[in-house]
Design a protein that fits this description.
This protein has about 250 residues and is of the alpha/beta class. The protein has nine helices and nine strands. The protein has an eight-stranded mixed barrel. Strand 7, helix 9 and strand 8 form a beta-alpha-beta unit. Helix 2 packs parallel to helix 4. The longest helix has 19 residues.
């Protein structure tokens, strides 16, 4: 006797009775590498136009009215494409905390997509960008707590660039922070940036938080950051995002 497939998880109230999103998009993938093992730790899913064009043409159509639907659609699209491409590492997805109403119900579409595509939920990372001003810190803490309960990893993207900085770490501790590319740009020739990054690394080590250096564009930037004790890297020097593909990685000698 064949066991029937589980019923789809019903949408929460915020998903019901809404018009179509009206934004067509797909995803590019950029690897995050682990230099300890010289393997891909994760692929970040990045919104792109259907022609592969940059994120601006997509994000420029996101409004307060369709923000929630777009956030949900990005998660579903990223999981589906990752499964189709055979991603066997983590997948990192940017999320808009101000678009999430209630984490326990708003995660349903993501869980349903993972079940449908047989993608392990423990390999999902959700990134909050520090460039988006957090309206309600308590709400964000509840989101992080629920995501951890579900087995997801959480990350702060663009750390050091936005509104809150270390104050966010005082409120909650993610699994990962991603150093903003402006902090790492030409860091090999900038003692001030080196001192700042050393300080961030000390805090993260004490809090058991992993650090990713993103936006790496030169070998000198990579070498200096690696010498400081960073092992996770992302940037054009390793690989550019590839539209609906997994790009080859340039490994340093």
């Amino acid at each position: 006797m064949t066991t029937p497939a589980p019923s789809p998880i019903p949408p929460c109230r915020a998903c019901q009775d809404r018009p179509p999103l009206g934004i067509e998009f797909s995803m590019a993938f950029q690897p995050i590498v682990d230099m300890r093992t010289r393997t891909v730790f994760a692929y970040e899913a990045l919104a792109r136009g259907l022609d592969g064009g940059g994120a601006a043409q997509v994000l420029g159509r996101v409004t307060e009215d369709n923000r929630y639907q777009f956030d949900q659609a990005c998660r579903v699209k990223a999981v589906g494409l990752a499964a189709r491409l055979g991603v066997d590492s983590h997948v990192s997805i940017n999320f808009l905390p101000n678009a999430v109403y209630e984490a326990a119900t708003c995660i349903r579409a993501t869980l349903e997509a993972a079940r449908r595509h047989q993608f392990p939920t423990e390999r999902l990372i959700f990134e909050i960008t520090e460039n988006e001003k957090v309206v309600d810190k308590e709400h964000l803490k509840r989101i992080i707590q629920e995501y951890r309960r579900q087995g997801f990893k959480t990350a702060i993207d663009d750390f050091g660039a936005g509104y809150a900085g270390l104050n966010l770490l005082a409120e909650f501790q993610p699994d990962i922070i991603k150093l903003d590319m402006e902090l790492v740009r030409q860091i090999d020739a900038d003692p001030v940036r080196q001192a700042i990054v050393r300080g961030i690394l000390g805090v993260c080590q004490a809090l058991n938080i992993e650090v990713i250096a993103e936006g790496i564009e030169t070998e000198a930037e990579y070498r200096l950051l690696h010498s400081l004790g960073i092992y996770y890297f992302q940037g054009y020097w390793f690989a550019r995002p590839a539209f609906e593909q997994l790009p080859s990685v340039r490994w340093p000698a």
